Amino acid sequence: MPNVDVFSALSNPVRRDILMQLRMGPRAVNDLAQGFDLGRPAVSEHLQVLRKARLVREEPRGRERYYHLDPRPLSEVDDWLKAFTHYWKQRLAALEDVLDEEARK
Amino acid sequence: MPNVDVFSALSNPVRRDILMQLRMGPRAVNDLAQGFDLGRPAVSEHLQVLRKARLVREEPRGRERYYHLDPRPLSEVDDWLKAFTHYWKQRLAALEDVLDEEARK
DNA sequence: TCAATACGTCGGAAATATCCGACGCGTCAA
DNA sequence: TTGACGCGTCGGATATTTCCGACGTATTGA
Q: How far is the CA of B86 from the C1' of C18 (A)?
């Protein structure tokens, strides 16, 4: 059971959609599968990937399993993106320097 | 030439690494390929994916091609993540309500 | 002009992802 | 207890990804 990379987990639109849906609250598998043009096994396998990426947590309720969102691993993506925010800030700062230089002429 | 999904483009660690490297400035293909345990064609194909996702731009200089970072499409990922930031704020607000309720007893 | 260099892309191999039907296991309700 | 339900997972089919060697094209420098 290899831990799945968060970026890989997000690469599939169905899985991103599932996460979006789970924001509203926990959902059972059949309930989730209704919203997609997919069979239940496929949804179940997408949930397995999300589970291995620790993006969802399962809570058994009788014969159903409610899946809960756990957004914490998303911080890895957010942190990665920050590296490019900083890049932009640097670029902007450099641009300002150039503009200041021009203004001083 | 189908436009590549940004999330898919980011799903590969080599492509993420390439983007990281390009923050420092434009790089030629051979130069980039040195840093990876990969042949040049593989790196070139990764660059093609990044190009289709509009995350890089190419600038021919003689027989070399310098690849530049274009971080703008990353905003799509950032916006997507924001949906979960808001989710968290809602959850925290709900939690505070519960705590206030408890405190009032 | 000619050999070397930098690069993109193609054909094909290998790995991986995605999906379904079928099956089995536990749970529910009669 | 028994039949229906909710679910996970397996086997296998198909699609996609990833990678390489080989080739063609354009550019460079001798």
A: 31
pLDDT of residue A102 exceeding 80, the answer is no
Best mutation target, A3, A4, A5, A7, to test chain B (most B CBs within 10 A): A7
The CATH class of B1-71 is: mainly alpha
Neighboring chain B residues of A83 at a CB cutoff of 8 Å: 20, 23
Residue B48 token pair: 């093609």
* Per-residue pLDDT tens digits for A76-94: 999 999 999 877 777 667 6
Q: Which of B64, B2, B68 is nearest to A87 (CA)?
A: B68
Of the candidates B5, B23, B78, the beta carbon closest to that of A81 is on B78
